[in-house]
Specification:
It is built from 16 helices and six strands. It is an alpha/beta fold. The protein has a six-stranded parallel sheet, sandwiched between helices. Helix 14 (303-317) links the parallel strand 5 (293-297) and strand 6 (325-328). Helix 3 runs antiparallel to helix 6 (97-117) and helix 7 runs parallel beside helix 15 (332-338). It is globular, with a radius of gyration of 20 Å. It comes from Novosphingobium olei. This is SIR2-like domain-containing protein.
Length: 345
């Protein structure tokens, strides 16, 4: 059980442990999927055909013909070839609504497709197991499930998430999908009972949106089953829920709530986060002195950047003492495993 007010920030590096794509891999898949030069030939891919159909539907809905939408997708594809992340590339085209719409559609389709290929499945192979293929203990979700259930009796399950807020910069629903299975397995609950507890108590911010709420989650947003948004009947509505950085920054109430959650935390944990400046700007109000304890997994970050990152985090978090910052050269799951006692304190 997490006893200290904690914000856990999740990036694409954590999702990679579930065989979800990194930011670079997602861009590569977009470039391949929007290669319409192969459309109508033996070399065309299923992804290209399906996205072309959805672009045509998008054009009908917005008053543009198919050629205009295909050209917009090509402009996005061209920019993606020199882009660092898919959301940054889309943001570069904030002057072109058709490109932005094509980008959001690609995210909804490709992330939904990635869910179907992930090691996190829609259901366990055997009743009572976790829906994780391979080695569950080499995923951050496994150790997170332990954190929430360790030392917490069933009679107090509604308190499982009372001290934690998640901020996920990924578009997938892996966290929300997994936790009910963990609670069900740990406490002998039915899956429906566990889903109701998670729906009632878990707080997750997705600054850039998510590929649909899960059917058991409350709300009015478009929904899709886990691993289902790539072929969802409402994929256009799901794509409309994706947000660019510019759109999110313009939502002052949302940004204020997000920053307040971070400012009130006594501990901030970064899992597989890339520390892109625009994402950090969403999290921190630089006029407030935070001074929390900070724990970050930095596996994959070049050694030449780590000293700079340490200085940056000390500054934006307002850390007054060096021992408040821990940079762990570990994957997300390794850091959660090795710092479990600290995180439960």
């Amino acid at each position: 059980m997490i006893r200290t007010r904690t914000v856990i920030v999740v990036g694409a590096g954590a999702s990679c442990e579930l065989q979800m794509p990194s930011g670079a891999e997602l861009i590569a898949r977009l470039i391949q999927a929007y290669d319409f030069s192969r459309l109508g030939t033996d070399a065309q891919s299923r992804e290209t055909v399906m996205l072309a159909r959805q672009l045509a539907k998008l054009g009908e809905r917005t008053g543009h013909d198919i050629n205009a939408m295909l050209h917009a997708a090509q402009r996005l594809r061209s920019a993606a070839r020199v882009g660092r992340s898919i959301d940054a590339v889309i943001d570069q085209y904030d002057h072109d609504p058709q490109v932005v719409a094509a980008g959001k559609l690609a995210i909804a389709f490709l992330v939904g497709q990635a869910e179907t290929r992930a090691t996190l499945r829609d259901a366990p192979r055997l009743p009572g197991d976790l829906p994780l293929l391979g080695k569950p203990e080499e995923t951050w979700l496994y150790w997170l499930g332990q954190l929430f259930t360790s030392g917490l009796p069933r009679s107090q399950l509604d308190k499982a998430f009372q001290n934690v807020t998640f901020v996920s910069f990924t578009y997938d629903r892996s966290l929300e999908h997994f936790l009910p299975f963990a609670l069900s397995m740990a406490y002998g609950l039915t899956l429906r009972e566990a889903q109701e507890i998670v729906a009632r108590n878990l707080v997750v911010h997705h600054p850039y949106g998510v590929v649909g709420r899960l059917p058991w989650q409350s709300g009015q947003d478009a929904h899709a089953e886990w691993a289902g948004s790539d072929q969802a009947w409402n994929i256009q509505a799901i794509a409309g829920q994706i947000r660019t950085h510019a759109e999110r920054v313009a939502d002052h109430d949302y940004v204020s709530r997000l920053r307040r959650s971070v400012a009130e935390a006594k501990r901030i944990v970064f899992l597989g986060f890339g520390f892109h400046p625009q994402n950090l700007d969403l999290l921190f109000d630089r006029t407030i002195s935070h001074n929390p304890e900070v724990l970050a997994s930095i596996h994959g970050i070049p050694p030449s950047n780590r000293a700079l990152l340490a200085r940056q985090l000390k500054k934006i978090c307002g850390l007054e003492h060096d021992d408040l910052l821990t940079l762990a050269d570990q994957r997300a799951w390794e850091m959660l495993r090795d710092h479990a006692l600290l995180l439960e304190a």
